[in-house]
Write a structure and sequence with these properties.
By secondary structure, the chain is an alpha/beta fold. It has 16 helices and 18 strands. The strands form four sheets. Strands 1, 2, 3, 4, 5, 6, 7 and 18 form an eight-stranded mixed beta sheet that branches. Strands 9-16-10-11-12 form a five-stranded parallel beta sheet, with helices on one face. The longest helix has 19 residues.
Length: about 475
């Protein structure tokens, strides 16, 4: 019954797409370089962002699109790997991957699978079901992912042509290249840097003694162990909860701030004006908004907090920044201003950093990319060194040049990672997906048409398809001309 319901929904979605398919003619100019085919777009990352952008381009009849993902099929994105929450953080009414097609919405999918009443009773969307839904959307609209394909270099080879260098597991890691006009980096929250582990930890503790919340963790090995968790965000609480549920002897959460944040700015920014038009603001206003946004930070969701709070062996230590870490006599010793904590294993929930030095695919071009700290100087009260390292992106998410005129190829590389937050308020999350895809797809199609305007004009001049095919008068009144 479930299968038939989803099959019927997929059929309905296909019909709705056909209803709004005008104009349906493919139009992007085909190109080659030294006899080698040049793709229209290569998207790096096949998770929800990469899939939605590919879908958006397809709806605009940009069809020569390649989507690459380094993960095995079905494991794109965080949902089946390091995401450990029970449900999404966003309201269940969130849309994005559907791109406005009702039958592709998560509500339609959920009701087809579980029934209308089940949707009405649902509070938030379970993480594993969101993952299933994304795979269903991808299959329904016909997006193909090239899995096991890791991009290790991006090379400008000619005006308007970029080479994407790839290693693919299915051919033993032998490198090859794809030529393309445009590249979209849809590589996730950490896709413009990496997961952050403070040097105090990485230089003081053996690697087997700690893990980042984004690392694979065998929680069954933490049974009976004393666990220390660093951080107060949702992921820190998620991992603390999983450790507790796997029988950890104790979990101590070390929080730098004097109290856990309670206001979630993500809920405030969820309105069309902000998410669609933030990118149209002045640099001053963008900085002010994002400086405040990051200053507020985000609390763990209430259900995640309560998930930990049910365990008596869970303790929160606020105003406890880590000042020293060491391994001594077979245990971890963590020092904070008020106490020392002893643990057998440590989980680091300190988020990610924007750092192009850690991205192999950007090594060739990283020094060419313009950063915010080079374009805007905030007042002293709004100084934020981390924000200054964010890339200064163009209106459609494209990289800009550090030195004007020195790297024109950067306009053809779009950044749709968390690093786009300061320039466009588009992260690699769900809430902004609807608006981010719209802006990126419009920017790409704009360039394709404007850059090739001469070719389109020549095609118009050569156009000779007859619309009026008969000019003999038949059984209709004869026209007359008045002298």
């Amino acid at each position: 019954m479930v299968a038939s319901g989803l099959e019927a929904l997929a059929g309905r979605a296909t019909y709705e797409l056909q209803c709004v398919s005008y104009p349906a003619r493919p139009w992007v100019q085909s190109r080659t370089h030294d006899g080698e085919h040049v793709h229209s777009v290569v998207i790096v990352g096949g998770g929800q962002s990469g899939t939605a952008i590919a879908f958006g381009l397809m709806r605009e009849r940009v069809l020569d699109v390649v989507v690459l993902d380094r993960n095995p099929a079905g494991q794109e994105g965080p949902w089946s790997t390091y995401a450990r929450m029970h449900t999404l953080r966003t309201p269940k009414t969130v849309t994005g991957p559907d791109l406005g097609i009702p039958s592709l919405s998560v509500r339609s999918w959920y009701e087809a699978r579980f029934g209308v009443q089940a949707w009405e009773k649902l509070d938030k969307i379970p993480r594993d079901l969101w993952h299933e839904y994304l795979l269903w959307v991808r299959n329904t609209v016909g997006i193909t992912i090239r899995n096991g394909a890791e991009v290790f270099d991006i090379e400008p080879v000619a005006a308007g042509v970029l080479a994407v260098h790839v290693r693919e597991t299915k051919n033993g890691g032998k490198p090859y290249r794809l030529l393309t006009r445009k590249i979209v980096l849809a590589t996730g929250i950490e896709g413009s840097g990496g997961w952050r582990v403070p040097k105090l930890i990485s230089t003081s503790l053996p690697r087997e003694r700690y893990a980042h919340t984004a690392d694979p963790i065998d929680f069954s090995k933490l049974t009976g162990k004393r666990i220390a968790v660093l951080g107060a965000g949702a992921s820190a609480f998620d991992n603390a909860a999983v450790a507790l549920e796997h029988g950890a002897a104790s979990v101590d959460l070390l929080v730098r701030r004097p109290e856990i944040p309670r206001i979630n700015p993500n809920r405030w920014i969820e309105f069309a004006g902000f998410m669609r038009h933030f990118g149209d603001l002045s640099d001053e206003m963008k900085w002010r908004f994002m400086w405040k946004y990051f200053d507020l930070n985000q609390p763990p969701p209430q259900d995640t907090y309560d998930r930990c709070g049910r365990f008596e062996n869970f303790r929160i230590h606020v105003a406890s920044p880590l000042t020293h870490a060491a391994e001594s006599d077979g245990e971890i010793v963590l020092t904070t201003p008020g106490a020392s904590h002893h643990a057998d294993f440590m989980i680091v929930g300190t988020g990610h950093v924007i750092d192009f030095d850690t991205r192999p695919e950007l090594q060739r071009i990283k020094h060419q990319i313009g950063l915010w700290k080079e374009r805007y100087t905030p007042p002293g009260s709004e100084t934020n060194e981390a924000l200054g390292n964010y890339p200064y992106l163009g209106s459609s998410g494209q990289f800009t040049e550090r030195v004007p005129g020195s790297a024109p190829h950067l306009r053809d590389i779009t950044c749709f990672t968390y690093a786009a937050m300061l320039s466009l308020a588009h992260a690699a999350g769900i809430s902004q997906l609807k608006f981010g895809v719209e802006r990126i797809v419009t920017g790409i199609t704009h360039d394709f048409f404007v850059d090739d305007a001469e070719a389109y004009f020549a095609a118009l001049c050569a156009y000779d398809e007859l619309d009026l095919t008969r000019t003999t008068l038949q059984s209709c009144p004869r026209t007359s001309r008045v002298a």
